[in-house]
């Protein structure tokens, strides 16, 4: 399988396409940016698909993978800064005691009492 761009053939692996992107993996020595028509061909020369690079929003060529896409470039964002947590003024045992008393008031038995009883 190969793609033909400006009468030059570039071997590639099986391409994959969806409604937002066209991707050809395994393409090497490709001039960048790609311009004009990209024809996807089977090894026997059968033209399977033609795509015009100018009809796509952007293209990427990284690690021997050519992608034409209509997905906009991701916009950078500022990382979320979370406030410092409020220090807990109660000890772990005080929190456990409070939770147990709350559960007892609600009608639940503690697991420790349930296992012993």
Features:
single chain, 117 residues, alpha+beta, 4-stranded antiparallel sheet, 8 strands, 31% strand
Description:
It is built from 2 helices and 8 strands. With 117 residues, the chain is of the alpha+beta class. It is elongated. The N and C termini lie far apart (74 Å). The relative contact order is 0.14. The model has no long low-confidence stretch (mean pLDDT 88).
Reconstruct the topology from this structure:
Blueprint: E1 2-5, E2 8-11, E3 16-17, E4 21-25, E5 37-41, E6 47-52, E7 58-62, E8 65-69, H1 92-105, H2 111-116
Antiparallel strand pairs: 1-2, 1-5, 3-4, 4-8, 5-6, 7-8
Average pLDDT works out at 88
- Low-confidence parts: none
Helix fraction bin: 10-25%
Give the helices and strands as they follow along the chain.
Answer: EEEEEEEEHH
- Tally the helices: what do you get? 2
Percent strand: 25-35%
Distance between the termini: 74 Å
Rg calc: 31 Å
Query: How are strands sequenced across the largest beta sheet?
Result: 2-1-5-6
Number of strands: 8
Biggest sheet features: 4 strands, antiparallel
Q: Structural class of the helix and strand makeup? A: alpha+beta
Q: Name the overall outline.
A: elongated
What is shown here, in short?
17% of the residues lie in helices and 31% in strands. By secondary structure, it is of the alpha+beta class.
